[in-house]
Amino acid sequence: MTDQAVDKSEKGKSDKSDALVTEITPQSEDFSRWYLDVVRRAELADYTPVKGCMAIRPYGYAIWELIQQGLDRRFKETGHVTAYFPLFIPEKRLMREAEHVEGFAPQVAWVTRGGDEDLEERLVVRPTSEVIIGTMYSKWVKSWRDLPVLINQWANVVRWEKVTRPFLRTTEFLWQEGHTAHETADEAQAETMRILALYKDFAEKDLAMPVIDGQKSDSEKFAGASRTYSIEALMGDGRALQAGTSHNLGQNFAKAFEIQFQGRDKSVQHAWTTSWGVSTRLIGGVIMTHGDDSGLILPPRVAPYQVVVVPIPRGNWQETVLPRAREIQADLMRQGVRTTLDARDEYTPGWKFAEWELRGVPLRLEIGPKDIEKSQVVLARRDVRDPRAKLFVPMDGLTPVIVRLLDEIQQGLYDRALRFREDHTQRVTSYEELKAVMEGRPGFVIAGWCGSAKCEAEIKAETQATLRNIPFAGANTAGSCVKCGKPSSGEAWFAKAY
Ligand SMILES: [Zn+2]
Predict the structure, then answer these.
(1) What separation in Å is there between the alpha carbon of 496 and the centre of ligand 1?
(2) Within a 10 A sphere around the Cβ of 474, how many other Cβ atoms?
(3) 301 CA to middle of ligand 1, Å?
(4) CA–centroid distance, residue 465 to ligand 1 (Å)
(5) Structure confidence by residue, pLDDT tens digits, 167-196
(6) Cα–ligand 1 centroid distance for 475 (angstroms)
(7) 450 alpha carbon to ligand 1 midpoint, in Å?
(8) Which helix (H) or strand (E) holds 279?
(9) What is the distance in A from the centroid of ligand 1 to the CA of 241?
């Protein structure tokens, strides 16, 4: 009996149950609709009366907290510390770095009044914090002995967006932004690459989301940066998602904000700075990398609940089954397995199965009177849709089995996502081929590129595919530009993107 069959045969006691399974649009019908349905039904986020701004609900925020923990641990391990800077930036400060202003001006929100008085100088609500942090670094850095500065900030930022979608693009969003200052160009470059590798490690190990790491083209780089690097993931609909960026800012911001120090040779020099960030967008990436028609599938490392225990209510279950279920939950929690017990009497087991599947809990543990007689429990994996894959596991030594299964699920999700990406990546040699791929089944396209912004812009205009990045792996494969036919020194990855 499939889980859906259970749902039909054991009608829930609540009105919610009837609509439960049908409330999610199938991916194949409308992926974008599916995404919004999952966000809403899994109670990750909700719309608010503020245009383009979402409320992150507790279940969605719990995922964000786990993302924060996984990243913050890595930041600290690589010598970074945390600080906090103001939400507002004075207008004149923002204007100091010309490219930066030009890049962000169309997206900034202004504060013009405080109380009932017009402000003498308008304030910008930070779209990113290079300006205010650079200003502070100019006060804090005096000597080469003050370097490097390795600071990360967890914060909200505001970018006035016209078209928004929960987690993927919202006017206000949460992120971390690292800002570092160094003595030499080499050190700044090493930091930029260290963080990109850290992001890749986090995305692949914790989010089970394979990513391509590489350098952005000039037209896609951060406003004011010398070089931008990104990690790019492929979503379930074949569109790419920029999942994180790391920028080498050269001395651009140090010159604009006077971050100067006395060097070892006593000369006054400008510092070399970097900045890097990932945001709540990663939650959108997790949803679209792993989810299916039943809803969310969460990698165990970022699942608020890794196991849901569902007692089967037969006979005097509250005296027999429930205490055993509580013990199992306590055992698992002691071993660090995040476990919830759904003992609600007002919902049937079938309803609960569907509900927790929709919320993407990696493992379901069922326990009923018969299981207690046999001293076993029933486990069902969220990542496996075949109900015959249900596992009957002895209660003795249960916790280590579950810990091992969670590791298997984590790895299995990564492997599956990697296979999907490989199946949706094609190398093309002609422009006709590139156009045909973009019109057909979407995904990554690898092609030669001569390095000209004109070719890049024409490809974008004609196929909607943007140059995602020039990956480190394969960057030296010489060939010819897919657009103009001139010799190309390397390859680029193109895709339609979020
Ligand atoms: Zn070209």
Answers:
(1) 19
(2) 15
(3) 43
(4) 15
(5) 999 999 999 999 999 999 999 999 999 999
(6) 16
(7) 4
(8) strand 272-279
(9) 24
167, burial (CB in 10 Å: exposed 0-12, middle 13-18, buried 19+): buried
- Decide: helix, strand or coil at residue 118: strand
pLDDT value at residue 152 = 98
pTM of the predicted model over 0.85: yes
- Report the first-to-last Cα separation within the chain, whole angstroms: 38
Buried b (16+ CB within 10 A) or exposed e, 300-339: bbbbbbbbbbbbbbeeebeebbbebbeebbeebeeeebbb
Tokens of 70: 């996984």
Amino acid at 342: D
Q: 41: how many CB neighbours lie within 10 A of its CB?
A: 17
Residue type, 170: T
The Cα 464–Cα 457 span in angstroms is 10
**How far, in Å, from the CA of 455 to the mean position of ligand 1?**
5
What's the pLDDT band for 271 if we cut at 50, 70, 90? very high
The rounded Å distance from CA 229 to ligand 1 centre is: 21
Query: How many angstroms is it from 488 CA to the middle of ligand 1?
Result: 8
Residue with tokens 């960030």: 277
Write out the DSSP string of 14-82.
Answer: STHHHHHGGGS--TTT-HHHHHHHHHHHTTSEEE-SSTT-EEEPHHHHHHHHHHHHHHHHHHHHTT-EE
CA of residue 478 to ligand 1 center, whole Å: 13
Classify the phi-psi angles of 150: left when phi > 0, otherwise alpha if psi is within -120 to 50, otherwise beta: beta
| Helix, strand, or coil (residue 444) | strand
- What is the strand order of the sheet 88-90 is part of? 88-90, 117-125, 109-114
Q: Position of tokens 């103001």?
A: 86
52-86 burial, b at 16+ Cβ within 10 Å, e below that, comes to bebebeebbbbbbebbeebbeebbeeeebeeeebe
> Which protein residues have their CB within 5 A of the ion that is ligand 1?
450, 452, 455, 481, 483-484
- Most confidently modeled of 381-385, 410-414, 440-444, 447-451? 410-414
Tokens matching residue 71: 């990243």
Name, in order, each residue with C-beta under 8 angstroms of 170's C-beta and a sequence gap of 6 or more: 52, 53, 54, 161, 164, 280
Distance 479 CA to ligand 1 centre (A): 11
